[in-house]
Amino acid sequence: MQTSDFHYDLPPERIAQTPIEPRHNSRLMVMRRGSSAFGDDIFKNVGDYLNPGDLLVINQTRVIPARIYAHKPSGGKVELLLLKRLEADTWEVLVGGKKMMTGAQAFIEGGPTAEVTEVLEGSHRIVKFSSPLENVLPSVGEMPLPPYIHEKLKNPERYQTVYASQTGSAAAPTAGLHFTPELMHELEGKGVRFARVTLHVGLDTFAPVTEDDPSTHQIHSEWCEVTPETTELVNETHKRGNRVVAVGTTSVRTLESAAAASGKPRTAAPISGPTKLFILPGYQFQLVDAMITNFHLPESTLIMLVSGFAGRETILSAYAEAVKRQYRFYSFGDAMLIL
After folding, report:
1. What domains appear along the chain, each with residue ranges and CATH number?
2. What is the pTM of this model?
3. Cα separation, 128 vs 284, whole angstroms
4. Which residues of the chain have pLDDT under 50?
5. Which strand (E) or helix (H) includes residue 183?
6. Taking Cα atoms as reference points, which of 175, 146, 171 lies closest to residue 294?
7. What is the pLDDT of residue 218?
8. How does pLDDT run across 91-121, given as a tens digit for each residue?
9. For 146, left (φ over 0), alpha (ψ -120 to 50), or beta?
10. Which of 81, 95, 214, 285 has the most neighbouring CB atoms within 10 Å?
11. In degrees to the nearest 10, what's the CA dihedral of 92, 94, 100, 101?
């Protein structure tokens, strides 16, 4: 298995620059594992493919306005992209700016002073702020849209799921962006249930794998949690013979991390802490029976994960078909339901 095995060609015009309104009007490609047939639908009809008693597992993480612009004492511009909070006043940060080495300072207008306390790999730094950021982030921070989105987002809430409640992500769990309160209410009325997990998404999740052999790639850890209540819902669903449907790759990784913690086949255990689970083809899924996901970047850990679930050839064939059918790709793009 080579990283290049997960490459595909995508015309730039297929990368969605703006979200669809309303959210549930995005397109939905429907595919079944082991089949080369791909159906076309609209996301608001996703309930047509679900049964009463099925469980949709959603990631309730909320994106922080993690991009901060600052300046050095010399006046030079600095960009700070918050990745992970380590302490109340200390963060792992991606720094854009020259000579930001240990001891270097940057000043945030209307906010605290930032000082680099440790230099990590590449542009990663540990930064200590003169006071906690939480209270000033809404006024000094901007939503950290992915670099392939060039249009300015008019409404920052559009890069949040409607059920986002646990602050901590540097990027949105994008499969959940298609849900509206109306659609969720309709699904619940049909007997489809929802369970919440939390995984705070780091930007490294979306980075291409640079190693030739993907199995040697070191995935960065992300904090996740599965509560006892969600654990019970998941285990009850399987006992009744219904399906656990993961909304997004982040929910997949969280659920499968809970399965690993239980040590019992097809069983979840409560977890709270970091996960470094890296899912590649050959992985034996324990909890996830179906998946809602967006279309992912070539050679990323995310396309490897969905390839592990549905088969590499099937996924690449589906992606090629999606290009032909003019689906919209990536964060603000269309969705795929894998049954």
Report:
1. 3-63+154-338 (3.40.1780.10), 67-142 (2.40.10.240)
2. 0.93
3. 41
4. none
5. helix 181-189
6. 175
7. 83
8. 999 999 888 999 999 999 999 999 999 999 8
9. beta
10. 95
11. 40
